[in-house]
Design brief:
With 251 residues, the protein is mainly beta. The protein has 2 helices and 15 strands. A hairpin with a 7-residue loop joins strand 12 and strand 13. The chain is elongated, with a radius of gyration of 19 Å.
Length: 251
């Protein structure tokens, strides 16, 4: 078989957002917060189309969760004026356990991301810490993707994770927001299932030429596995989606 690995000219439209799949929940807070938010700690409300805790705190840690019990998931949010807050993942509010991605943190002095594993209200040390990602009070799009035991966080539409951790402590739970800053707020929440794995087409753990060959074998035979943009057809748009993912190392 002759490989056709030429580059394609197209607008990537933030590659992961181009893939068709049903959203579980969205909220832009323009009409106030959805009643699905739990608002259990922190007196959360919507002000000027942004979701904010009126009593930001880390003792107890503020929390407003969505009701869905999920294993694998993708959660995106605009963090407005990033200082100190975060995203709860696979959380059980009854046992006060789960995973927390902190945005900024360190009493407002942090300029990156890190994770806490929380078990019955006890917080781990900062895990997977990455600094120097942001400036103070920057507006940032954060996406958390969970597959199996792997938790990854992405910044501003990048295909490359900014930080990740692995833990088998929580198989499912709820997702939501944490706020520990009077300046920081949230907007444009999207909860979804995680996007499909694309560039590692043969699923051997690496992104390389073998994936190109496997993809084109499937694509030339009209195999539904090559419908990587999930629009219901096998066509040139799938080639574009695959090569954007492959050239950028997006699994």
């Amino acid at each position: 078989m002759k490989l056709r690995a030429s580059r394609f000219s197209f607008v990537p439209c933030l590659f992961l957002a181009c893939i068709s799949h049903a959203q579980i929940f969205t909220d832009d807070f323009n009409a106030g917060p959805s009643p699905q938010w739990s608002n259990e700690r922190g007196n959360w409300t919507a002000i000027d189309g942004r979701y904010d805790s009126l009593a930001p705190s880390n003792n107890p840690t503020t929390r407003s969760l969505l009701p869905y019990i999920l294993g694998d998931l993708s959660f995106e949010v605009d963090v407005i004026g990033l200082v100190d807050g975060g995203i709860w993942v696979r959380t059980d509010p009854d046992s006060d356990s789960g995973v927390l991605l902190v945005t900024g943190g360190f009493l407002g002095m942090g300029r990156g991301l890190y994770w806490h594993i929380v078990q019955h209200g006890t917080y781990s040390v900062a895990l997977g810490r990455i600094d120097g990602l942001f400036t103070a009070n920057q507006n940032v799009r954060i996406r958390v993707v969970v597959r199996g035991d792997l938790y990854t966080a992405y910044v501003n539409g990048s295909c490359t994770p900014a930080t990740s951790i692995t833990t088998d402590l929580f198989s499912s739970g709820r997702v939501g927001l944490y706020d520990f800053s009077a300046q920081q707020s949230f907007d444009n929440v999207v909860l979804d299932l995680p996007p499909p794995i694309i560039a590692d087409f043969n699923q051997d753990g690496g992104v390389d030429g073998a994936d190109v060959q496997a993809f084109f074998e499937a694509w030339e035979n009209g195999d539904s596995a090559s419908d990587v943009n999930q629009d219901g057809g096998v066509d040139g748009a799938d080639v574009e989606t695959f090569f954007f993912a492959w050239e950028n190392g997006c699994a």
